[in-house]
Every structure is written in C-alpha cells, then in structure tokens.
Design a protein that fits this description.
Blueprint: H1 3-34, E1 39-40, H2 42-50, E2 62-66, H3 67-80, E3 85-88, E4 102-112, E5 119-133, H4 137-157, H5 159-162, H6 172-183, H7 186-189, H8 192-203, E6 213-215, E7 226-228, E8 236-240, E9 243-247, H9 251-259, H10 269-272, E10 276-278
Parallel strand pairs: 2-5
Antiparallel strand pairs: 1-2, 3-4, 4-5, 4-10, 5-6, 6-7, 8-9
Helix pairs in contact: 4-8
Length: 280
C-alpha cells in the first residue's frame, strides 16, 4: 500500500470513528433517559483505558447491555431514534441476519471487506446482549459447549457474509471449521432463521440478575468475555473521546483476560484491522 493510499485510509477511518461516536452519543442519551445499564466492551473498553478514545486502528464500537436492559431497550428504541438512525435486528428487519443488533446511520455508507463477499452497509455501532452463566463450573462447561455449537451453526448458515475470513491468529479448531465451510454447502445445510432462534433461547437459559457470572458470548472473544460479576461491580466511568462511558469496575482484570498485556499492542494490529471504509 502506497504512503498516499495509507494516509487516505487513515483519514477515512477517523471519519468513520467520528460518525460512530455520534451514534454512540444518541445511544447514551436513550440509556440515560430510561436508566438502562450498559458497558463498554472489547476494543471500545480498551480504547477508553489505553487511549481515552478509539484505538487508532479500530473501526467499530462495541457496547453491551445486561439482558433485562437489552430487552427493555428493544421495546423503546424505535420511537426514540431520529429519522436518520435505524435499529436493525434479525427480529424486525427481513434482510438482517446477524444475531447482534446494531444502530445504523443511513447518511453514511461504508464498504465492509471482512467477509468473502464485500458488502455496502450503513455506518453502525453494535449492541451486544449480556447473559447470565451458572455458578457451578460443570454446568458452566456444559452450557459453554452448547453455546459454541449453536454459534457455529449460525455462522455456517451465513458463511459467505458473516465469517471474517481476514481475521488472523484464529485457534486451530476455528481454522478447521472455516476450511470445511469453504468446501461443504453449509449455507444449505443450516437455515439461518431457525439457528438464530435456537441460539437466542439458549443464551437466555440463565437469568442475568440471578447468575453469579456474566458473558458477552457473541463478541469476537466469545468465552474470554465471561467473568464473575465481582469484576464488573457497579461499573465505573471512563473517558472516551469527548464523552464518558460506563465500563467494568475492574478493567485491569477484564482486559488482561481478553488481551494479555494490553498496554503493549502488537505492531501488526494497526495494519490488519482496517476491514471497513467509507464509500465516497
């Protein structure tokens, strides 16, 4: 990639981040109005802690909501958004087939290059439901296995559009499953609507507020985002660009479990995370 092209990509990314920040502000307004719980997750939490804003090479926003708040949020979100923002969910949008819903800005188009087929989409932020996990370690292991199986079935049903084939450093099992997906007619074997409903029922098996553990299972890190609730506590505020975001109270434990030595990002991270670009 030439120096000029690289600079253009960086400018494009920053423009996208600022659009996502505006969507995030609208989300926070709604949460404040209805007293809904939420947490910054994944790279958004890491960015708040390490950069006080976006990670310089990050192209998305990840927010989690405890399942009870998430369900209430789904009931009120449509009437609260301005005309240019839209809430997409597989439950209310015919051509949207992802389990994780998102808030989109129809004024800004981006090209998503992460899957095998490039797709034009509205700029977005993801809203992840967070669910309870049992205290008993054996029940937890059984439930984890069932969740992983259900998620794999959903991904197979959307293999050409939903699986990030450019993501590096995948575990061996995931690489084997992706290789199989390239050979077998998996999108014909698994029907998306049925698999999404199966996954949804399974994720809600354990009540969030009554459970000692929580998980953001549909995040990129899957079970690495499972924690005892003591690490989230009552939450804490973190600076993110020109706003404040709620995140887990013990951010150090959470980020170390997910990223290891999170203060020292690998050099290749900056080069490999650009999977979206704004369409001119």
């Amino acid at each position: 990639m030439s120096e000029q092209t690289q600079k253009e990509r960086e400018n494009d990314l920053r423009r996208l981040q600022l659009v996502e920040l505006d969507i995030l502000k609208e989300f926070l307004r709604i949460c404040d109005k209805y007293h809904l719980r939420y947490y910054a997750l994944g790279g958004t939490l890491l960015g708040a802690v390490r950069h006080k804003g976006f990670i310089p090479w990050d192209d998305d926003v990840d927010i989690g909501m405890p399942r009870p708040d998430f369900c209430r949020f789904e009931q009120i979100i449509q009437k609260e958004l301005p005309d240019y923002l839209h809430y997409l969910s597989y439950k209310n949008t015919a051509d949207y087939h992802h389990y994780v819903p998102r808030i989109t800005d129809s004024r800004v188009k981006v090209i998503d290059e992460s899957a095998s087929v490039d797709a034009e989409k509205d700029a977005w932020i993801d809203i992840f439901p967070m669910d309870g996990m049992p205290g008993n370690k054996y029940l937890r292991k059984i439930h984890c296995f069932r969740l992983l199986t259900a998620r794999a079935r959903v991904n197979y049903s959307l293999f050409s559009t939903n699986v990030d084939l450019k993501r590096q450093n995948r575990p061996l099992l995931e690489r084997i499953m992706i290789a199989a997906g390239k050979i077998l007619p998996v999108e014909k074997i698994f029907r998306t609507s049925r698999e999404l409903k199966r996954l949804d029922r399974l994720m809600q098996k354990y009540d969030y507020d009554a459970s000692p553990y929580l998980v953001n299972f549909m995040g990129i890190h899957k079970l690495k985002e499972m924690f005892h609730k003591k690490h989230y506590g009552n939450g804490a505020d973190y600076i993110f660009e020109d706003i404040r975001l709620r995140g887990p109270q013990d951010y150090d434990f959470v980020l170390k479990q997910m990223y290891g030595e999170y203060w020292n990002p690998p050099e290749e991270a900056e080069m490999n995370h650009h999977n979206t670009r704004i369409r001119e």
